[in-house]
Amino acid sequence: MVRPSNRTLAIAAAVLIPLAVWGWMQRQARLETQRRAAAAAQLVTGRPVQVRCPGVLRRHFEYDINEGDVRFSADGQPGDVANLAGGPCDGLHRLISEGAALDLSCLQLDACSAQDTRVALGVVVLTHEAVHLSGVMDEALTECRAVQRTPRVAMALGATAQAAAYIQDWQFSVADDRLPDRYQTPGGCKADGS
User: Fold this and answer.
1) 113 Cβ partners below 8 Å, 6+ apart?
2) I want to staple 128 with a disulfide (CB 3.0 to 4.6 A). Which of 98, 108, 146, 188 is the partner?
3) What pLDDT sits at residue 175?
4) How many C-beta atoms lie closer than 10 Å to residue 120's C-beta?
5) Pairwise CA distance, residues 82 & 34, whole Å
């Protein structure tokens, strides 16, 4: 067997080492996002839960139909894991990283950049799935309760009280209107979340 030349080895190392470092950094960011999201979800569930975001390979080779999901057992007991799609996870990561520096007033006009909208979507999806993790299966009731809990989750992830209020208002006035009928509460959602 012929040993590759030193030049070939150097070129391979110059390509593979930065790629490995980038992959490691992506993994670390994903794990931190999952850890912080799980802690925020526990404010809703009152019990230990996990949040999972897709890794680099899963993002490129799998397509998520839903922004998030929680599995229930045959007898209606929720699992301990919420799986989130890449977009909501990206939004949560940005909120965790930039927190109070984010100005989300653009949500009032539904005129945000895709990145700012993903921040709001991330909080909304995480809160919705956390309500499922607390044992609620019905989508309309889950969404109604999630709207009430969104500010607390947003602030736990680093949002200011004002940004959290913008996210909640956007969820109630824009995002919820885009959801399928099974997520809609006939007669609206009451202030107490019922």
Assistant:
1) 106
2) 146
3) 83
4) 30
5) 10
The predicted pLDDT at position 192 comes to 52
What separation, in Å, do the N-terminal and C-terminal C-alpha atoms of the chain show? 72
Q: By C-alpha distance, which of 117, 146, 144, 116 is closest to 129?
A: 146
The span from the CA of 159 to the CA of 77, in Å, is 31
Q: Give the Cα-Cα-Cα angle 46, 47, 48 (nearest 5 degrees).
A: 140
Please state the rounded mean pLDDT for residues 86-110. 93
Q: What is the mean pLDDT of the chain?
A: 87
pTM of the predicted protein model:
0.84
Phi, psi of 101 (to 5 degrees): -75, -15
Helices 6-45 and 114-133: crossing angle, nearest 10°? 50
Per-residue confidence (pLDDT) for residue 33, from 0 to 100:
95
